[in-house]
Write a structure and sequence with these properties.
The complex is a heterodimer. Chain A is of the alpha/beta class. Chain A has eight helices and twelve strands. In chain A, helix 2 runs parallel beside helix 3, helix 6 crosses helix 7 and helix 6 packs across helix 8. Chain B is an alpha+beta fold. In chain B, helix 2 packs antiparallel against helix 7 and helix 10 runs parallel beside helix 11. Classes of the chains: A alpha/beta, B alpha+beta.
Chain lengths: ~230, ~650
């Protein structure tokens, strides 16, 4: 049975283009133009993944509200924010509401597909028992690349998909400097310097939430970042 | 010309007041002079009237007023002698040094060219002094030891003839047997009819030889003298010879021919009653010889205290060059019958009298007008300074309003009710609108980027979908171009939103203490690999430079400066990154060779959307890079500036960052 992706987007052209792309990838797609439509449909049947725009028709913050309601319905459902808004505040708000990723609309469809696939892989991995082969261990850090889960000293650190990929790219070769371009490639995004910086800052903060002494992500000024053990 | 100077000059115009005052003072002075002249004339008239007919008061008349022949006085005959008033008694020594040196007061008598003598008469304290200068080629003395009446021993002799106070004619003679003291004698008929030469000890003098003749100096008490007086010289060329007699006595009987015309001793006393400081009263004979004079011209100091220095200074500006002539009034004194003029009264007044009056008025007026001028000038200057201050505050406010990002909230002088206040208010309104507009422009890029993103997403997602379709090979080129175009459009959008994101990043930035030196060192090392066609030279201090701020932002700021330097420098050139220390601040400088900054740009380079330089690549430039530099510098309590390299050939961008602690 095909996985169902719900697209909540008020811009018809974009909505249809995304729908076409996901259909081509072999997913079943349902599209909604506003929150009311989406919620009534979700009440009947939950999709396997939701791609949500923040401003929906006459609701500038409608996507956030939708995310909150959807997360209440299902704690594991992958939710991706895809929006024209790129402010730091929006990203923080969106991720705090339990979204798995916060993406801006300049993302290419290929990159979007990669993320959707990755999230579905994670959902599958979470259903299966743990497999030791997909674990990356770096000191206190444990990265489960299948479940896309990070642990520090055995404690789970909740990372968005982009954040997970950045941590993975850094920790895969500890001590090696990863420049911004490399990090963007690893995370399947095109971001500007400030967005990378704020991603890294958020990653540090999340790890520091578990271990205040956390200092493994180091900035190499002018070059990029590296993981130190 | 500054406003201050203009108003100062305007204030100086009030100096026209003292100038007009000076002009007025001159007018006043001539009016005063005329008035003084009139009053002086009336004084003279009054005095002359009081002297009318008082011949006795004018002239010495021992036999009573009627004895004086007023007609003779007015005509002043050739034999009359007019003694001058002497300042001191001359020493009887036969020399003329202590006599007045005025040739006009001499009376000359002559027989012929070879025989002549001059008489100078003078009065001092009721004594008549005579100086005789006799020109005689052969002066002859009496024979020594002989009787003065022996005809064979007679030499040159001088006869004085005069009327005694009773009116009788008397004669005395002076003879000498050598130079030296002489005493007059008179001839008396003895008991038996013989002639005797008796000494007259009251008349004495000195006989002295001179190169051209001899000189006799004599004193005669005035008490002996009446009206008539004369001198006669018996000139003998040899002792006992026939004398050559000439002079103002009748040669036959030695009668007096002329008079001794001199003032009554009471005249001076009489005039003295009318004496006033600054006034000179003089009575002269009708011929002009001074009879009496009371001179108080020099006693001006009694009129008023000496003028203060300032008055003397003012006087220099008012007076025409040259001294002020005194004013004079001359009135004839008549006899009782008003037929004859018996004398003249001359009243002279020093100009000081009215000059001092004028000076007092002038000083007061000039003091007042000058003080007014000074007050006006000072007031105008102060007013101008105040205006200039307000204007310069206005100028500074408008200039800083144009160059700074922030809104000008407190524009000066907007509360003033005058025209400057109007200007300030309209400036404030104008700048407020300008600020709104620039604020709109500043956020325009971000807003635009946001608005364009949705249609761009439509284009890009459509292109992505098109990739998956069967596209004929002939159309693939167009697809690629469309994709390339949309990529560039996306890059532009990223650049446009950069400033907004930096502002956000600054808003959420955390301050930490860090050492600037390794940070910049590491960044410069990174630039070497990022821009292989440029060389980088890092000049960093040896010690740590600790700053409190956001290292990420600092690096980002340096990125922008380096991007800028790379854009405007030719490949292969060296970009210098220098970190220096100043008191309280770290100074980061980035120098690049290349074109100089556009004229007038340094003030604007760091403004949002300022673009007046063309870089060497095709990347989009919105003039946001240096704006970001400024934002980050200001976040660190510093400032950014730009200038041409000394000597040209490049640009230098400097960022000052405030050091803490």
């Amino acid at each position: 049975m095909k996985r169902l992706i719900a697209i909540v987007e008020d811009e018809a052209a974009i909505r249809d283009n995304y729908a076409a792309a996901f259909t081509r990838e072999g997913y079943a797609v349902r599209t909604y133009a506003n929150r009311a439509q989406a919620m009534s449909a979700f009440a009947a049947r939950l999709p396997d993944l939701a791609v949500i725009d923040i401003s929906l028709e006459d609701e500038p913050e409608g996507g956030f509200e939708l995310c909150r309601q959807l997360r209440a319905l299902s704690p594991v459902l992958p939710i991706i924010f895809l929006t024209a808004r790129d402010s730091e505040l929006d990203a923080v708000s969106g991720l705090r509401l339990g979204a798995d990723d916060f993406l801006t609309k300049d993302l290419s469809l290929a990159h979007l597909s990669a993320r959707v696939n990755a999230l579905f892989r994670r959902v599958e991995a979470l259903r299966k028992p743990e497999q030791a082969g997909d674990i990356l261990q770096r000191g206190p850090l444990t990265l489960d690349t299948e479940r896309m889960q990070a642990q520090w000293d055995g404690k789970v650190v909740l990372l968005s998909l982009t954040e997970f990929w950045i941590v993975h790219a850094l920790a895969h070769h500890p001590g090696h400097v990863r420049n911004r371009q490399q990090l963007m490639d690893a995370a399947n995004v095109v971001l500007d310097d400030n967005t990378i910086t704020s991603h890294v800052k958020r990653i540090r903060r999340k790890f520091q939430g578990v271990d205040p002494q956390f200092d493994a992500v180091q900035t190499v000024y002018g070059m990029g970042y590296r993981w130190v053990e | 010309m500054s406003l201050r100077l203009k108003l100062l000059l305007l204030g100086l115009l009030t100096l026209v007041l003292p100038w007009a005052g000076c002009r007025y003072a001159r007018e006043m002075e001539s009016a005063l002079r005329e008035g003084e002249q009139t009053s002086l004339e009336s004084v003279a008239e009054t005095l002359a009237t009081s002297l009318e007919g008082r011949v006795d008061l004018l002239y010495r008349a021992p036999t009573g007023p009627d004895a004086v022949d007023t007609a003779a006085l007015s005509k002043s005959g050739p034999y009359d002698l007019r003694p001058v008033a002497l300042a001191a008694a001359p020493l009887l020594d036969g020399y003329s040094e202590d006599w007045p040196h005025d040739p006009s007061v001499w009376a000359w008598y002559e027989k012929n060219a070879a025989h002549r003598f001059g008489v100078l008469t003078g009065v001092y304290e009721r004594v008549l002094f005579l100086l005789l200068d006799v020109r005689d080629a052969h002066p002859v003395f009496d024979a020594p030891g002989a009787s003065p009446l022996d005809p064979h021993s007679l030499g040159d002799r001088v006869w004085l003839g005069f009327q005694d106070p009773a009116g009788g004619e008397r004669q005395v003679f002076v003879a000498a047997s050598g130079p030296g003291a002489v005493t007059a004698r008179y001839v008396e008929s003895g008991e038996y009819g013989q002639r005797l030469a008796q000494l007259e000890p009251r008349i004495r003098g000195v006989w002295q030889l001179t190169p051209g003749g001899y000189r006799v100096e004599l004193r005669v008490p005035l008490s002996m003298l009446g009206a008539g007086f004369g001198v006669l010289v018996d000139d003998r060329d040899a002792r006992g010879g026939e004398p050559l007699s000439y002079g103002s006595l009748h040669p036959d009987d030695l009668r007096t021919l002329g008079h001794l015309i001199m003032a009554s001793p009471d005249l001076t006393t009489y005039l003295a009653q009318f004496s006033q400081p600054g006034l000179r009263l003089a009575v002269t004979t009708p011929a002009g010889q001074v009879l009496a004079r009371v001179d108080a011209l020099k006693r001006v100091a009694e009129l008023a205290p000496a003028p203060p220095l300032i008055a003397r200074l003012y006087r220099r500006f008012v007076d025409q060059p040259g001294t002020q002539p005194p004013i004079e009034a001359r009135v004839a004194v008549y006899d009782r019958e008003h037929h004859n003029v018996i004398g003249e009264l001359e009243v002279t007044q020093t100009p000081d009298r009215w000059l001092r009056l004028r000076d007092r008025a002038l000083t007061r007026m000039l003091n007042f007008t000058l003080a007014t001028s000074i007050v006006v000038v000072i007031a105008m200057f102060a007013f101008a300074a105040w205006l200039a201050l307000r204007l310069s505050r206005l100028r500074q406010a408008s200039e800083s309003a144009l160059t700074r990002t922030g809104l000008v909230t407190s524009f000066p002088d907007t509360g003033a009710r005058d025209e400057l206040g109007d200007v300030a208010r309209s400036f404030s309104r104008l700048l407020g609108r300008l600020n709104e507009y620039t604020g709109y422009l500043r956020t325009l890029a971000g807003k635009l980027a946001h608005e364009i993103r949705t249609p761009l997403t439509i284009v890009r997602s459509s292109l992505d979908n098109l990739e998956a379709e069967q596209v004929p090979a002939s159309a693939r080129a167009y697809l690629d171009r469309a994709r390339h175009g949309s990529e560039r459009l996306n890059a532009i959008l990223l650049a446009m939103g950069a400033a907004t994101r930096v502002e956000e990043a600054i808003g959420g930035a955390e301050r930490t203490r860090f050492d600037l030196v390794p940070l910049i060192g590491s960044a410069v090392a990174a630039y070497r690999s990022a821009f292989p066609e440029r060389r980088f030279s890092g000049e960093l201090p040896a010690g740590p430079v600790t700053l409190e701020g956001a290292p990420d932002l600092i690096v980002q700021m340096l990125d922008k400066l380096i991007e800028n330097a790379v854009d405007f420098s030719p490949p292969g050139s060296t970009i210098t990154v220098r970190l220096g220390l100043e008191p309280g601040a770290a100074v980061l400088e980035v120098e690049n060779p290349g074109p100089p900054l556009p004229a007038g740009a340094p003030g604007h380079l760091f403004e949002s959307l300022w673009q007046s330089r063309t870089g060497g690549d095709n990347r989009p430039h919105f003039g946001l890079g240096l704006y970001i530099v400024r934002l980050i510098a200001e976040f660190h309590g510093g400032s950014a500036s730009a200038g041409d390299l000394p000597g040209g050939g490049g640009a230098r961008f400097s960022v000052r960052l405030a050091l803490t602690g």
